[in-house]
Amino acid sequence: MLVVLKPSATKEQIQSLIAWLEGQGLIVHISRGEFYTFLGLIGDTSQIDVTLLEGLAMVDTVKRLSEPFKSANRKFHPDDSIIEVGGLKIGGPHFQVMAGPCSVESPEQILSIAQSVCASGAAILRGGAFKPRTSPYDFQGLHADGIELLLEAKKQTGMPIVTEIMNANHLPMFEQVDIIQVGARNMQNFELLKELGMIRKPILLKRGLANTLQELLMSAEYIMAGGNYNVILCERGIRTFENYTRNTLDLSAVPMLRELSHLPVVVDPSHASGIARLVQPMAMAAVAAGAHGLMIEVHNDPANALCDGAQSLTPEQFDEVFKKVRRVREAVT
Amino acid sequence: MLVVLKPSATKEQIQSLIAWLEGQGLIVHISRGEFYTFLGLIGDTSQIDVTLLEGLAMVDTVKRLSEPFKSANRKFHPDDSIIEVGGLKIGGPHFQVMAGPCSVESPEQILSIAQSVCASGAAILRGGAFKPRTSPYDFQGLHADGIELLLEAKKQTGMPIVTEIMNANHLPMFEQVDIIQVGARNMQNFELLKELGMIRKPILLKRGLANTLQELLMSAEYIMAGGNYNVILCERGIRTFENYTRNTLDLSAVPMLRELSHLPVVVDPSHASGIARLVQPMAMAAVAAGAHGLMIEVHNDPANALCDGAQSLTPEQFDEVFKKVRRVREAVT
Amino acid sequence: MLVVLKPSATKEQIQSLIAWLEGQGLIVHISRGEFYTFLGLIGDTSQIDVTLLEGLAMVDTVKRLSEPFKSANRKFHPDDSIIEVGGLKIGGPHFQVMAGPCSVESPEQILSIAQSVCASGAAILRGGAFKPRTSPYDFQGLHADGIELLLEAKKQTGMPIVTEIMNANHLPMFEQVDIIQVGARNMQNFELLKELGMIRKPILLKRGLANTLQELLMSAEYIMAGGNYNVILCERGIRTFENYTRNTLDLSAVPMLRELSHLPVVVDPSHASGIARLVQPMAMAAVAAGAHGLMIEVHNDPANALCDGAQSLTPEQFDEVFKKVRRVREAVT
Amino acid sequence: MLVVLKPSATKEQIQSLIAWLEGQGLIVHISRGEFYTFLGLIGDTSQIDVTLLEGLAMVDTVKRLSEPFKSANRKFHPDDSIIEVGGLKIGGPHFQVMAGPCSVESPEQILSIAQSVCASGAAILRGGAFKPRTSPYDFQGLHADGIELLLEAKKQTGMPIVTEIMNANHLPMFEQVDIIQVGARNMQNFELLKELGMIRKPILLKRGLANTLQELLMSAEYIMAGGNYNVILCERGIRTFENYTRNTLDLSAVPMLRELSHLPVVVDPSHASGIARLVQPMAMAAVAAGAHGLMIEVHNDPANALCDGAQSLTPEQFDEVFKKVRRVREAVT
């Protein structure tokens, strides 16, 4: 960490700051320039509150040189994390496809989709029971009933399930859920993240619409700081000025997150574009970029889905995507 | 609302869609073009789920012509809403300044700041007890103790208080709080918004870092849909590519929100720039743009504040800002 | 095109507007609603100036339903355009890799790189002679000498060359250049685009840092409106809030541009991330997403390159990337 | 400037880099840490090409501590620059309003508007003769004829004129123009900026749609590096995700630019929102934030303006805005 001091800082102030920093277990190097003096801090700076330092009258700016995340940092955990979920593995050499409808709608719908995506080769069943919607007047999901239907489909097909949580008070309903998803809008709902750090179930953490990779990793850190190391990162598109697509899938996030962190990285190509016919090229591109998994929306009747139908594939289209993805994966590994 | 149909839509599909829409109480006008057919929907379209329509195979795009928010919409409530808080009014012709530290730190700190900003003319005391921080390792506030200290300062000075909530389970602690603040990162924490719709206390709703004004108004709508009409909107800066300032204060939001909605609009110039010396010009500009109030950070020792000191004013600086703001307000009203 | 009229529009105003629009050769359908009246315009609306209509007192908003670009539009040219350059083809089934240094620096440098990328399989040699730099104090390229060195390398290797133009007055120097590149910062330098519409040489048009795909296609339209149909579109990364990477490569632009337009689409994975080790995964992802070509920076001594060395590959790394890219291309075609 | 070296840098590499840097006239301080070694560079670092340093294999990152702009930097020119234009002054304590139509359309139009804004108190006449338009099919201005009409209006009213240039080859037409405007889309048209550095006329440089303040100042630096110190900076709105307004006026740019630079800063509130009824509040806010001037669109018949009518005021509305602005200016100075 580098602390740039103002020209007005007095010798006494500087000595007192250095003493305080050394008291935090850091080694401090000082360099004096014409306009600035700067302090190089060596040691574990992840515990240092940057805004606190910046608040000091004598400080001009503070620049981190090492990352503020620690548990998620590859520097301290060089090997890929491999996360187990219902007998399956994800991360490292293990690649998994999660598929299913945006919203769980009925027993027939979820079971029929589960059976068909399972037959195509998907390993994990996704489906929304709690749906975050911008408008209070839009369909919000079947809630507890939706989770029941997912669990029934899990029993029938043997597929582990992943579904989104919006409120830590709902955790008891998620006891049989295999992976708990945190949606993009809750990526910085720190109270929810802290509660999910208290359990030991895998958490699929989606990147917020306008959040940086560092912020995503700091949110992973919130969960890991509680002791839950089973975090899967998910790129699902960011907000940009482009409006032909709903969001812009940031595929450079995949190699970048894999370099910065040991956690598995999956990609959701369905929400990013909001357009079903872009799912296939973007799914293939995600795999070529090195994703550990994909999360894809499939609906047996996308034209009449209650939610996000525009971005869902039919089971037949999904089968085709799965085959293409497998060919790309073979080409790149 | 306008529904653009694909060239491939058949007559039967179109008839069936029109019948369904008419069943929702809407009047439907049809226009046929060379490439597209479009349906004009007349009536209350706020209850129509756009993504549901977009999911239909025959639909190309759906465009809203009227706003999707209803309770917050000035069209249906032409007069300014005036919100009462602890004997004060905010909204319409009533202008109020909220001031206080970013975080409550000690009994002496909060009382001393409260007395000084009150003497300068501030009407409402702000102070954070629960602090959302990007890093789990940064200072997170005094929690229940912080609220106790705010209440003690309220008792001593008579000032109503405003403080942030991060978790609906904490609501019992907020019983004596006059205005409950929802922070930028929780603007789309819909579960929290729904709970705040159940109470009748004023809610100060901050705009998210990358959210549009329509999304802000839809979040207000979540609270109002529960019956709580006491919502104060707050512009506090949005994320842009500029990095000399932490965020970019969007002052055009003030006249635009006042045109779209009847709710009061206040501006927080402290968080937007993150730089204390920008607070004065931006506070004056906010008032010139028509803000109903300001929220300003003041700290008796900004250089040593535990949180966000870089953007806090000293009580003396605040006194100067308050005087300047009053002169601008007199010039524009 | 849809024109939404204000409630205050009088019958006479509406009649007069309709008459004017019909005079432009358009068919006009009218729908009246409770709050708005709207006019559906059918016919060739690409010649209608939207801001002119929006300026009318009676008009609330104008929404285009069809795209404002015509020559670049796939609707009117369903088949892929195939562009010929020095005996090679690009577009449709033809895939080409352009490689070379960011800046041309010396005869030895450019020739050595040309020979090595040619041996790896690259078809076209790239190299900058005019370099747009944010700072007037940074290295700006060898100018005419740089073009001479490129032409010499072309003579020796037989590779066609692509290089950037910054000023239409320089066109005489580009007479032997095979593809003229327009850089991201000049994407909306309309005076330059108009001049390039007057010639018949292929133009590689890079997307601006914060421009939409529609704006990119409108800039292509500027060139095509002059009669030069040899336009190659290039995605090279857009500005986002992410700062681990310099820009964010928008790979969904590839299938989206291919859907909207018949022009070839190539991807530059080097400038987007600014990081050499991301070039390989992003090049593979670009091919998986359907790119018609790649533009990759290669430098024989990236650590000492005069410009943008951080994002350049060594010839050995490029050879490896080329092999991987070929495998992905085989998997997806 | 701070150079962070990789752990892999050898002693010999470091010695050789230090020797090279010292050869550039810099003083180098070295600090060694557990993960990084860093070099603090003291002296005139504005001439150092950051990407060149970052390209070195041993370098991890380079961080500037001082600004890369020099001529525009307030540190080296503490006093406000005051720019003279046709007998008027702008900058420091001198405040000026520029007003006129978006496009010059006819002799009657420009003269009538000039007389009316002059009567209201505007000092400088604006009007577009060359119009940058996204579509090649939209109205592009009257070109040389437009400039003739502006000069005629100048003769009749005595007002200096400001108008936009798009091509350095047009400079001879601008000989009688008082202030030459560079539009947002040409802010990084470095070839044009260099030519404008060769003349001595005041240049009004508009900030690009997605450019940072530092990039704006670097573009000013391009002009100043040629010897033309008469640069006026103009904030005109940046691209954000908000779509109720066309762009977002960044008023914090005003105090920030005034702190970073000695150049005058004016604000264009008309283009930013694209909505005439927002011009008044935003003009007042700009003045409250400390702007040295305003540029406002006025049209005698905005409903029928050929270009950008939606954002133009009538002369009567402008008169009202001018009075309000004067009151705010009196309150803040």
3D architecture notes:
- The structure is a homotetramer.
- Chain A contains ten helices and 14 strands.
- Chain A has helices at about 10-25, 50-55, 105-120, 145-155, 190-195, 215-225, 255-260, 270-275, 280-290, 315-330, and strands at about 1-5, 25-30, 35-40, 60-65, 85, 90, 95-100, 125, 160-165, 180, 205, 230-235, 265, 295.
- In chain A, strand 7, helix 3 (about 105-120) and strand 8 (about 125) form a beta-alpha-beta unit.
- The longest helix of chain A is centred in the last third of the chain and has 18 residues, at about 315-330.
- Chain A is elongated, with a radius of gyration of 23 Å.
- The two termini of chain A are about 40 Å apart.
- Chains in contact: A-B, A-C, A-D, B-C, B-D, C-D.
Give the secondary structure arrangement, pairings included.
The structure is a homotetramer of 333-residue chains.
Chain A (H helix, E strand, L loop, with lengths): L1 E4 L5 H13 L3 E6 L4 E6 L7 H5 L4 E5 L19 E3 L2 E3 L5 E5 L6 H14 L3 E3 L17 H14 L3 E5 L13 E4 L7 H8 L5 E4 L6 H13 L5 E5 L17 H8 L4 E3 L1 H5 L5 H10 L4 E5 L17 H18 L1
Helix pairs in contact in A: 3-4, 3-10, 5-6, 9-10
